[in-house]
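In response to reviewer comment 3 from the previous cycle, which asked for concrete evidence that the modeling workflow produces usable outputs, we include below a single protein chain processed end to end. The sequence was submitted unchanged, and the resulting structure tokens are shown without manual editing.
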Amino acid sequence: MSTRKTDDRRIATNKRAYHDYHIESTYECGMVLTGTEIKSIRDNGLSLRESYVTVRDGEVYVIGMHIKPYSHGTTQAVDPVRARKLLLHRKQIRTLSAQVHEQGCTLIPTKAYFSPGNRVKLEVGLAKGKKLYDKRHDIAKRDAQRDVEREMKAQRTGQ
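The workflow returned the following structure tokens.
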């Protein structure tokens, strides 16, 4: 279920997803894009902020992902926030759809990257929303870890 680890070239990361959700598992998806969208992505024109993934009629779409229009493109520019189809195996789509409807999970894009074959891939996380106290707990734990690391560094340099 987890994506394979490769030497990917990251395009965009959705840091907010890790702050607002518990990511339970991730899936690697291909995307159906036009030529000018690919060129715009290569110019760092992709934003995952406020985007989400939905399953409609047995197909998976990413909604709200912004790809800025390519500056040297033709007059037939596509809508920058249109719904884009994601490519997954049918069995994965059925599994995701069942988990979203039965367990109340959400599908959130976590990062976009170029795969080794120069194809744009999207990592989609199956997530459950965090409560406010969970967010506070995570922040407190991160601060405590940072303090411990500072103390250890001070002891090493002080010797």
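The chain has a mean pLDDT of 86. We consider this sufficient to address the reviewer's concern, and the full set will be provided in the supplementary archive.
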